[in-house]
Amino acid sequence: MSGPVSPALPTRAAAGEATEQATPGAPRRPRARWGDRLLFGYTWLILLWLFAPILVMIAFGFNDTRSKSNVTWQGFTLKWWGRLGEYPDLTTAVLNSIGIGLLATLITTVLGTLLGIALGRYRFRGQGPTNLIMFAAISSPELVMGASLLSLFVSLGVQTGYATIVLAHVLFSVSFVAVTVRARVVGMDGSIEEAARDLGASTWVTFWRVTFPMILPGVVSGALLAFALSIDDFVITQFTSGATITFPLWIYGAVRIGVPPQVNILGTLIFAVGVVIAVVNTVTSRRRV
User: Fold this and answer.
1) Where would I find the ABC transmembrane type-1 domain in this sequence (predicted)?
2) What are the residue ranges spanned by the domains of the chain?
3) Domain covering 87-258, topology
4) Which has the closest alpha carbon to 82: 255, 265, 250, 257?
């Protein structure tokens, strides 16, 4: 037997039509549309403000300047791209920055990932002070950290140079990786690992085949952040560099006599590589979801 038929519930569209029919002369929410337009314009203004220095950097790599000062637009040219290695000191500085950035990123990613997993998964004595020290390293002024590191190296009799720059960059960037990985570990579904162990997987297999793929987006994000922090750091590097010159230190020294267009080109290339890596990471992460 079939029961009494209940009346169909009105849909939202039907309710909206009924409201418009009830008030045919009423305006169609002008305040919301103006708000949307203002928000749209405000968003584009913020994006333009953020990208304006990058656009200027890219444009002045094509500037046909006839002096050492590359601050006035004098025409379009591609000749500087063919003379990218005209300054050997600049090339050495860029290679130093890339080498230090890659080495510091590798060490930081390993240490930060292990620290993030420990903080996100386990409860142990000293966890509170560890969190405090980690966030203190993030919030400490670079000037204070650089001076402290210089005092430490001088007290220990360590000669500042390439190795001390790497140690300094690992010190101030490991906390960023740990925070990123810990956030990923906290949001991870632990029942998947339990299912893997119930099916006979060992601890190492469970970590490598289940845990690591799940935290990989956080690890990659932390590594990219560590590399970005390392390659453009100036303040801490200035204290711990000794005779080693990096890309930011070379630019700072060249400002007094004029920054050549090759600096803009190298900055453009570094920015382009970062964008490509970020896009690949984003696309890969979406495909895993």
Assistant:
1) 94-281
2) 87-258
3) MetI-like fold (1.10.3720)
4) 265
